[in-house]
Design a protein that fits this description.
Number of helices: 14
Order of helices and strands: EEHHHHEHEHEHEEHEHEHEHEHEHEEH
Structural class: alpha/beta
Distance between the termini: 47 Å
CATH topology of the largest domain: Rossmann fold
CATH superfamily of the largest domain: Response regulator
Radius of gyration: 23 Å
Largest sheet: 6 strands, parallel
Length: 372
Amino acid sequence: MKRSGRRDRTFLRENGSEVKSPGIKDIAKVALVSIGTVDRALHARPGISSGTRARILKIAERLGYRPNLAARYLKLSHQRKIAVHLPRDIASYFDALRAGVRHAAAQLQPPLEVEFYSYPRIGLGDVESMQTVLDGSCDGLILAPGSLSQITPMIRKATSRGIPVVCVATDAPDTDRLTVISSEPFTSGAIVAELLSRSRKEPTEAAIITGDLTTFDHYEKARGFRFMLSEIGSPVKLVEVVEAHDEYEEAYRKTCSLLNRYPKLSGIYVSTSNSLPVIKALEEKGRLGQMNVVLTDLFPEIVPLIRTGRIFATLYQRPLTQGRMAYEALYRFLMEGVRPRPAYRLAPYIILRSNIDLFLENSPGEIRGVSP
């Protein structure tokens, strides 16, 4: 709120009271350095050691520093440009996420220029593709981080150059990314463990088919599943976590092998959207509809299987919403200087035979290629 005679920027807390936003002078005073040193640290300019830069950035974060990026970017002669860096597979999920970005970009004015970059799948070609992005020029980046050991240095390189990074679908928590927008993975895994456990009284076996446990989302879903089994004293035993790397043939082959090794398996949790090869294997083995199967996300091929009870449930991660929120967060930061929360964890929608038609009726356009 602006007041006559005051040049300090102020912001409103949630309760309506004002709080002064610290400036560069305030940070310099606390850090016992010059204003120029703080400016170099905040804007990734040379002439400062990495240790001093890290110390100043921590102080700025502790003080709640919010840069006036709107004024800085409005001075630029070129249109602000963001890069959206996502895999091609699994198309049913990531195409919906891209659609969410496009939808938000069409609504907010003045628009940012959006360039889409793609690579085969998470963990395959993502580092090389991101290097292409960084070799070019952009003012912001939206990405789905894969293997943390490989992608973390790339995110740090982007942020060191003053490029804010928004993570979607999964997270890179030990980086300086601006925010993350994703379905809450630990909770998702815990929900599935509870769903598979409540109807069981006798000891039984279940398995998880995931992508790659070096991806934060996949690891956390498995961790949440294990935690809930222990928390509720479940009769369900997790016999294996199968990494299929979001690749169709690998998922099909490994599911067939899993079913051969565990003929008494009573439940499967597919924790990525790569569920069609798992369904194919279950059909060929005569096991579809004979065990409780919980999937992730929803697309046309799955709808009739849930309606007929052959698939027990799916957890919809709301990719369209994630894409929209990711663009909006980056837009507000670049154009208005509004820093988003560190994380936006969306509650997944639990879709069962009992509510699938109501869900589709009340979510027109949310799920690509699916109608009520």
